[in-house]
Design goal:
With about 170 residues, the chain is an alpha+beta fold. It has one domain: 3-Layer(aba) Sandwich (Glutaredoxin). Helix content is about 40%, strand content about 20%. It contains 6 helices and 8 strands, in the order αββαβααβαββββα. It has helices at about 1-20, 45-60, 75-85, 85-95, 110-115, 155-165, and strands at about 20, 30, 65-70, 95-105, 130, 140-145, 150, 150-155. A 4-stranded mixed β-sheet has the order 4-3-5-6. α4 (about 85-95) packs parallel to α6.
């Protein structure tokens, strides 16, 4: 009986560790996809939202970062959490960019928006990023895989990517 209890306990511990993730600092966390903030809005009028951001970008002399993805994408949700939990990145984004989450899902694929700003984006995995200048010109489309480190993201790589696109 004792062996069965120990075997059962061992299985519980093993299976529990299979669901752990790491945060930006390599610390294990147990947040599931359901526990992460859902920043994508399938019902949004994305072009109207982006047009509003462009008006603000002109006034504030900022570029816009569009994070393309969906609430179904765990890497999209992890990236969103990462940039807000990492003070250096959160500060950089708040000071120098306007940030938007462009939804891609079965409910709303936003095909016209993707075609307008990132026609080749469908060849990339999610999330991917579209950098717009204050006039709405696409400056760059970036995949996210090169920003990863383990089960998270690399602060130095993410900062380098964003710093490259700070408006001059």
């Amino acid at each position: 009986m004792r062996k069965i209890k120990l075997l059962f306990l061992g299985m519980v511990v093993f299976l529990g560790t299979q669901f752990l993730q790491t945060n930006a600092y390599g610390q294990e966390i147990s947040k599931s996809q359901e526990d992460l903030l859902k920043p994508y809005n399938p019902e949004a009028d994305a072009q109207k939202d982006i047009d509003g951001l462009l008006q603000l970008a002109k006034k504030e002399n900022k570029n816009i970062i569009i994070q393309a993805g969906g609430n179904w994408c765990v890497w999209c949700l992890r990236f969103n959490e990462y940039i807000h939990e990492t003070a250096s990145i959160d500060d950089l984004l708040k000071r120098h960019f306007l940030y938007y989450h462009l939804n891609y899902s079965k409910e709303n694929k936003n095909e016209a928006i993707f075609q307008k700003y990132a026609p080749e984006g469908n060849k990339l995995g999610y999330p991917f990023f579209i950098v717009l200048d204050r006039n709405g010109k696409t400056l760059h489309v970036q995949e996210s895989g090169s920003l990863e480190k383990g089960k998270g993201y690399d602060e130095e790589k993410v900062l380098k990517f964003f710093n490259t696109w700070v408006a001059k």
